[in-house]
Amino acid sequence: MTDTDTLLNARNLSKTFTLHTQGGVRLPVFDGLDLSLQRGQCLVLVGPSGAGKSSLLRCLYGNYLVQHGEVMVRHDGRMIDLTQATTRDLLDVRLRTLGFVSQFLRVIPRVSTLDVVAEPLLAQGCGEDDARDKASTMLARLNIPDRLWSIAPATFSGGEQQRVNIARCFVADYPILLLDEPTASLDVDNRKIVLDLITEARRRGTGIIGIFHDPQDRAAVATDTLELAAMDQAA
Amino acid sequence: MTDRISHNADTPLLRVDSLSKSYGPVVGCRDVAFDLWPGEVLGIVGESGSGKTTLLKCVSAQLEPDGGAVQYDTRDDGPRDVYGLSEARRRLLMRTDWGIVHQNPRDGLRFGISAGANVGERLIAVGERHYGDLRAEVTDWLERVEMDIGRMDDLPSTFSGGMQQRVQIARNLITRPRLVFMDEPTSGLDVSVQARLLDLIRMLVGTLRIACIIVTHDLGVVRLLTHRTIVMQKGEVVEHGLTDQVLDDPQHPYTQLLVSSILPV
Fold first, then answer.
1. What's the total number of domains in chain A?
2. Contacts A21 to B, Cβ<8 Å
3. Is residue A232 a part of any domain in this protein?
4. Coil, helix or strand for B208?
5. What is the pTM assigned to this prediction?
6. Hey, is A40 helix, strand or coil?
7. Residue A24 is part of which domain span?
8. For B55-73, how does the pLDDT look when each residue is reduced to its tens digit (9 = 90+)?
9. Can you tell me the ipTM of this complex?
10. How distant, in Å, are the alpha carbons of B16, B55, B68, B140 from that of B33?
11. What proportion of chain B, given as a percentage, has pLDDT over 70?
């Protein structure tokens, strides 16, 4: 393993929520947390509900702020600390390096399913025809029937919305993927497809950090695990 | 929203530095600083009286600040202090490279001339004289904002509020500005009309890669349209960050209050 195999390196991360509207209550989530991610690694976060797995993923994406520590991410051949980066650099890291699958799709009225999935590619500078081709292929692979592609996904079932969400992330070929329960609302067949997509990406060298509640799913994709314990919430 | 920012530019389009404006003893805005990059959409939020409109007016050359600087990367001469430009050059900038979409269509449209004339006016101002070309360009822009072309010779006063805002947007975008200022562009409209207009703004700003500063009290609007958000309270910036971070993990007590005040549907 060489230095350039390290895709993400987080050191001494601490996260505490301070709820000013509720008397300034402080909720510590994690403290002094280290993790690193190599090319081709799938690191699965484990721990009880409330241990801060989703919060950690969000901190790695710059969606939540940490109180201490650094999140170094390999972007354009150099390591950049997301906790210190300008918003402009953060947006660029998200555009080209970090993909994130949230638990729920944020639907925008009147934007078709095909456009939702093609959007990250267009943002990366991909041509319109090429982007739509790739988006179609990914939607087909995830069993979204083509009669639905021209419709905004607002009326889709939870499982369909989640597959659109996954398609939107996997279409763009990010070097690092952060996956927050991508298989949670899927049936057996579609679950298998998503697990295959994850394994294929990993074999191409993508680094993945994910949360999977199903032990079988976890076993199918994990190369490593990181255990998070719930912190005492008295502070 | 997904980010369509051009990264070839190394100079911010707009650089605002320690900007302040008071109305006698009353603070409008105090010591505000931010950069805006080409193609970037910035939201300014805060309750009524927090200074967001004052800030927008100072930044967009509509209201001279008491202190601080607003620097704009002009097409011809590079970065220039907006308030240091001659009156003529500032006016030219404001009607070509900038657009201003007002909250009240009466401030942004001329009600005595037709919708089509409103949309074509900025093109005439920069020298377009050929009637056929002008009419074709105006038609194209009215179509882009989803207006019925059959209404182009009607007066704006015969239109609904949503239609007036769409005419205002077409009127501003026809000269291909690089920077557009919007002050509460959708407030006062029905929810369904508002959604359609927001979607239109999102689509146009995204495909044309226009940088935009949007003042709003509606956190749904910043979530949908903006990359970055500034939160103002009593004339000062209390929080500034990526929009999803400000909304999902607000740090300042006032931002937390704003975010927790959103009623679930």
1. 1
2. 253, 256-257, 260
3. no
4. helix
5. 0.92
6. coil
7. 3-227
8. 999 999 999 999 999 999 9
9. 0.93
10. 5, 10, 9, 38
11. 96
